[in-house]
Structure formats: C-alpha cells, structure tokens
Amino acid sequence: MSKNHFKVLILGAGSGGVSVASRLKKSISAQDIGIVEPAENHFYQPLWTLVGAGIVQKEKTKRAMSKVIPSGVSWIKDRVKNVDAPARKVTCESGKILSYDFLLVATGLKLDWNKIKGVEGHLGKDGLCSIYQFEDAEKTAQMLQSFKGGEAIFTMPPVPIKCAGAPQKIMYLAEEIFQKNGVRANSKVTFAVAGKVIFGVPSFAAPLMQVAARKKIDLKFSHKLVEVKAAEHMAVFEKTTESQVDGQVKTSTELISQHYDLLHVVPPMSAYDYVRESNLAFTAGPQTGWLKVDQFTLQHQDHGNIFGIGDVTGVPNSKTGAAIRKQAPVVAQNMLSVIAGQKPTALYDGYASCPLITGVGKVILAEFGYDGKLMPSFPMDMTKERRSMWILKKDLLPPMYWNGMMTGRM
Question: Which parts of 330-378 are beta strand (E)?
C-alpha cells in the first residue's frame, strides 16, 4: 500500500528538490520524505547551450530520475493539481491526495510557448529553434550548422526567466559557427531584447556590449517577440517607446514585423498555475504570480511550514542553477530548525552565477547577489573573458552538479 502522509513532502525533483532531499535525509529518515515528480528523466540544463552549438551531445545532460532521487525517498510519479495549504494537503492529477507536516515547493517554472502566437508546432523547422528544451537543443545545432546566411534573429523575453544569459550565449556561439562556415559575411545577426539593457548587472553589461560590437551584432532593445508567422518567415515584435510629455514618462507600443531566415526563440516563463490558484503566490508587485517566500530564509510568508527553492520562488534574484546551489543548504537548515520548533536563522544572500559564454573557449563568469552586488569567487577581474572559466563551465561544473550538489555534498 502506497504511503499518503509525509513529514516532508517535496514538489519537484529538479535541482532544488533533489539537493534538499539529499541534505534532509542526513537528519530525517528517508521514509519520512516524499517527492512528487512526473518526469522520467532529470536534466542538467546549463549544458543545453553547448548542445545547441554542437559542442556537447544532448544525452550527456540526461540521467534517469530513478538514479537521481535519493535512495529510500518515496517517489510519487504524478503531477501536482492543487495545494491546500491550511489543510496541509496536495492533490495530484491522478486524484491521489497527499498530506504533509512540512512542504517544499521546488517545481521550477513553465515555458509559456502559448504566449508567442504561431510558435507551437514549428520549433525545429521553418527556421525556428530554441535551446530551452531537450529535443530542440539538438535541432538548434543542426539548424545553425546548415544556416546559409541571411537574417538570424535571437530573442530575449521579459524577465524573470531561467538562465537569463542563455539567449545571448547561444547567439555568440552561433556567430562563430557562421564565421567558421563562411556565411557570416552575408548574414545579419540581431539580438531582440524585451528589456532595456543587454544584462541586468551593469558591471557585466558593459563588457557584453563590447562583445556585441566586436561581433557586429545589431542590438534592438524594448523589442518583445509576440508572434511568429512561420509560413512567411516573419517575426512580429511589440516595440515599446518612452517619451517625456509634460514632465511625465509616457509609454507607447507598436508592432514591428521583421523577416528572418533563422529565429532563436526564448519563451516567456511563469510559475505553474497551481501556485497562483492555491494562494501561494505574491498577488502584487514585481513578483506577482511567484511563490511568496521570504527572500532571505526562503520560508513562506503566510505558511510557516512551507518553504520554496529555485525558479518558482518570488525573490529578486537571477534564476540560475548556481542560485539553487546556494539556496539548498539554507532551505535544508531552516526546514530542520522549524521541524525542531525553532526559528529559521540561515540566510540566502541572493547569490547567482551566470557563466556568460562569449565564444568557444571564452567565458565571463558573472557572480552577483541581491541588488546586483558583485560576489566573485576568484581573486581576479571577472568582467573579462577567460579560458579558465570556459573550462569551469564545460568540464568542471557538470560533475560537481551530479556528484556534489545533487548528493547534498556541496
């Protein structure tokens, strides 16, 4: 007979859920921990940029979920339908009802492809590609290699999204592929960004602007992709313009259509519907729709027995795997404190890291915390492109992830 009640129930077996489960297992019996996760496989998504550039094979980013979830922890292979926080119950799509004493929401975010009209059903063909899905990353590599020249557009949706540097990392690698294949001279590479800057932290935005200039990339800010007309190879952007009128800033929008021969699409992203529907999310401010946790303790602001980790959380950080690595020990320690009847005291400082690939063998390692505070791990100028950081990104971080972070060792 399957178990329906857990001392700690974890929603999601991604980076956050698995790493915290591995840590909690050291202090709590594994039989008291359950993880709700429908997926058969676990992916190391940071490598999908290199898969998209044809540098890494996609299968190297995948492991069976059964090999990743800590031994002894119950795996409920189901999807979450609803969370009743006051009743401490989770309803799954199968109809199964689970109860818990303490809950960790680690479900990540969803890709809202439906918010870009005309994209669904065309990825991997009609000039459309994306590195944000496992199968599509490999197709991206094929499309970049077969590109014969013309208009290559790379898009960046409004933040927050996971790995906000990835949309431009694949662009820089693509530009080098075009150079290598002899088609760069008859190609125009454009970066269409929904926001106003190339990167949110000024210290790293400046060198990235220099990279874009060096590679002769056309930058279009305040351009949000809203529609793709695949048959016509036309991308439709909502262009936002601000102007001063009587001392006040006025915003106007217009639709701009642009032809493409290759279009790399990054979809808008959001928390899963049940987070909002269960009244677990912020309902006002810039974090609306994301899990309502304290940005330092990661404890839910309305329900003390609930914590959050990773991309689902409504904290003002950058949504990266490195952020989860720093959050995991904080969440585990604070959950154990609350279980013991104590107040959570461990604090997360907003740390995130983004290895900004600017070309093969070149990486700017951006490390920062809340309010853009620089938090370098190395005693050198980290705003410069370095081969050592490329080695870190490509060769060192993956085994650290599988053997360290996922097992609760780091």
Answer: 352-359, 362-368
Q: How many domains does the chain divide into?
A: 2
Distances (CA, A) of 405 to 31, 68, 263, 364: 21, 11, 34, 22
Residue numbers annotated as active site: 163, 354
Question: Please, are residues 365 and 389 in contact by the beta-carbon 8 Å criterion?
Answer: yes
Strand partners, 111: 269
Range of the domain at 276: 5-109+271-349
* CA–CA–CA angle 264, 267, 268 (5° rounding): 145
40's CB contacts (< 8 A; 6+ apart) are 64, 65
What is the chain's length?
410
Element (H, E) at 134: helix 134-146
**pLDDT tens per residue across span 86-137:** 999 999 999 999 999 999 999 999 999 999 999 999 999 999 999 999 999 9
pTM: predicted TM-score of the whole model, two decimal places = 0.94
Strand partners, 34: 9, 74
> In the structure encoding, which two tokens stand for residue 361, read together?
């063998």
Residues 118 and 264 occupy one common structural domain: yes
- Same domain, residue pair 87 and 61: yes
* pLDDT of amino acid 1: 47
Per the structure block, which two tokens stand in for 383?
């705003």
Is 405 contained in some domain?
no
* Burial status of residue 350 (CB atoms within 10 A of its CB: 0-12, 13-18, 19 or more): buried
Strands in 248-259's sheet, in edge-to-edge order, are 223-229, 234-245, 248-259
Amino acid at 312: V
Measure the CA–CA gap between 173 and 153, rounded to whole angstroms.
Answer: 13
* Domain's final residue, options 300, 333, 349: 349
Q: In degrees, to the nearest 5, what angle opens at C-alpha 124 toward C-alphas 118 and 126?
A: 60
Domain final position from 312, 333, 349: 349
Query: 9-38: per-residue pLDDT in tens?
Result: 999 999 999 999 999 999 999 999 999 999
